[in-house]
């Protein structure tokens, strides 16, 4: 979907249809106009990638009735209503039913464009999330394992399937938390070795003193405490796939021995003189540039070339931001099942915070953030940074203890935020009740809630 959504505009007045059509067309939108709501309903379905814009007051089926029909067809289709003077109560009722927003006549064309763009972005995310769910449901394919719609992930899935059909060794490069082991599992699970063992070793987690024993095993009596034979990881992986994670952490003296195993396809247990043939496919992973390390003498160049017959690079999460909302929804759904709780969809403010964040911890960090969101830890977008609530509280307490005070503007903002927050608490997130109590326009409340990081879902219970 391009930057501007398709706009379906319903209005019984021809001059209004022509005026809005001209303005939106000049602004780069594709627009379809309708005089009768019944005709529009014949063109709308769940796969519609557009936004509905309609007048509230129309003969026959009015805007509210059309909204109800759309809600029964697809509750996630954004509907923007145009209201005249004195119809605010009706507009508030429409928002309660599920309208995305409303525009008051006479309206500012730039304001209309801004609302339609935001509504179109929401619709785009809904369509992409549905596509993600289809990927998840097709767990028998690589699309259900390596999730994402970005170009980088499409290329990665293509490369994984292509390499899985071979027996070459593969080197996976990617930042911490980017999913290197998941890619290695896919290389194994979609290969002819899928029925044989997948053996994973984290080279950074094994002490050097026992590394050789873990890798190659030993015979009984090979050293003090070796009372019986033990099969090593390399031998156990024979016929399947040996995954060496954080390979850059392997000591240089052990790199020599691993290289010999790969060259000869044989392994000797500690304390034995007998060579045992092994049939290995080695998949190694590194967050560092092994070529640069080998040039610097910190990794054996011959082992690098043996491991890196083919190389895969996993894009960092900040490099595929179009996947962030989809992955967040997936991890939220999974966390909700684990903790047996219901989860509210993220707000536009939440999604902006997610996409704008740099994600140094990649997929692993996103999964943790989704779990905090599901568990309701923090308010607004505080769940994005675990320490945000604590840090803010500590700062406030420190200011009070030191006698420091904010300037007048800051104090007014703090007071205004508390008033709105308390109203939301009292009415359990009922926006109509909050509007009635505070006697402010819906648009004003929306803007202030976004400014202060207040989300309706946080107050519903």
Radius of gyration: 29 Å
Q: Going across the major beta sheet, what is the strand order? A: 2-1-3-4-5
| Proportion of residues in extended strands | 5-15%
Provide the residue-averaged pLDDT: 83
Could you name the ranges where pLDDT drops below 50 across 5 or more consecutive residues? 387-406
What can you tell me about this protein's structure?
This protein has 461 residues and is of the alpha/beta class. It is built from 19 helices and 14 strands. It has helices spanning 14-26, 37-41, 63-73, 88-97, 109-137, 151-164, 180-189, 208-216, 233-236, 252-264, 290-295, 301-307, 324-339, 348-356, 362-375, 388-401, 408-426, 431-438, 442-451, and strands at 6-10, 30-34, 50-55, 79-83, 101-104, 170-173, 198-202, 217-218, 230-231, 241-245, 266-267, 276-277, 281-286, 310-313. Helix 5 (109-137) crosses helix 13, helix 6 packs across helix 7 and helix 13 (324-339) crosses helix 15 (362-375). The longest helix is centred in the first third of the chain and has 29 residues, at 109-137. The protein starts with 5 loop residues before the first strand and ends in a 10-residue tail after the last helix. The model is unreliable at 387-406 (pLDDT under 50).
Structural descriptors:
single chain, 461 residues, alpha/beta, 5-stranded parallel beta sheet, 19 helices, 48% helix
Give the topology, please.
Blueprint: E1 6-10, H1 14-26, E2 30-34, H2 37-41, E3 50-55, H3 63-73, E4 79-83, H4 88-97, E5 101-104, H5 109-137, H6 151-164, E6 170-173, H7 180-189, E7 198-202, H8 208-216, E8 217-218, E9 230-231, H9 233-236, E10 241-245, H10 252-264, E11 266-267, E12 276-277, E13 281-286, H11 290-295, H12 301-307, E14 310-313, H13 324-339, H14 348-356, H15 362-375, H16 388-401, H17 408-426, H18 431-438, H19 442-451
Parallel strand pairs: 1-2, 1-3, 3-4, 4-5, 6-13, 6-14, 7-10, 10-13
Antiparallel strand pairs: 8-9, 11-12
Helix pairs in contact: 5-13, 6-7, 13-15
